[in-house]
Amino acid sequence: MRIGELARRAGVRVVTIRFYESEGLLPAASRSDNGYRDFPSSMATRVRFIRRGQELGFTLAELREFLAASDLRAPLDGEVRAHARRKLADLDLRIGDLGRVRAALETLLRRRRCALPEAACPIVAALGDDRARPSARPMASAKRAADPSAKPRKTKRNGSVASSSRSLGRPSSPRTRSTRA
Known about the structure:
- The protein has 181 residues and is an all-alpha fold.
- It has two domains: 70 residues, Multidrug-efflux Transporter Regulator, Chain: A, Domain 2 (Orthogonal Bundle), CATH 1.10.1660; 69 residues.
- Strands 1-2 form a two-stranded antiparallel ribbon.
- It is elongated.
C-alpha cells in the first residue's frame, strides 16, 4: 500500500509516516517501479502502536527498543527490561495521580462549586499538594539536561527560552502574531 493509504489506515498524517521512517521506527519501504513507497498492510498496526505509545508517555527510544525486541522475537535484554520496570513504576504513579484527580472531580461535582471558605478547590488540592505524590517526576529541563541526545532548545538573544505557538499545541497563524510599531 502507498504511504497515503498507510497514513489513512493508521490515523496519522503522511509526514508522520515519513518521520517514523527517518527515526528508524519503520523499516524502509520497498519502492514500486514508479518510485512510490510500498508498505505491507501490517505497518498500519506498527504505526498505531507507535502513535498510541507516544500518547501514553513512551519515548521514541523506548518504543524503538520494544519494536526491535518484537521484530527479533527474542527475550527482552537487561536494558529493555530496566526501561520496562521504570515505565511500570511511572505508570503506577500516574494511576495514583489519576485516582486523586477522579476523587477531586467527584467532590467538585458533589459540592457544585470549586472552593468552600474552609477548603481549597478539590482539584487544586489534589494536583497542587506535593505530599500527594511520593516521588515527583523530574522536570522536563532536568530530563533534557540528563539526556545528551536531546535537541537544544531555541533561545532568544536575551537568553530566555523562545516560546512558539506550536510548542503549546496550537497552530500558528498570521492573525495570532502581534505586530509592534
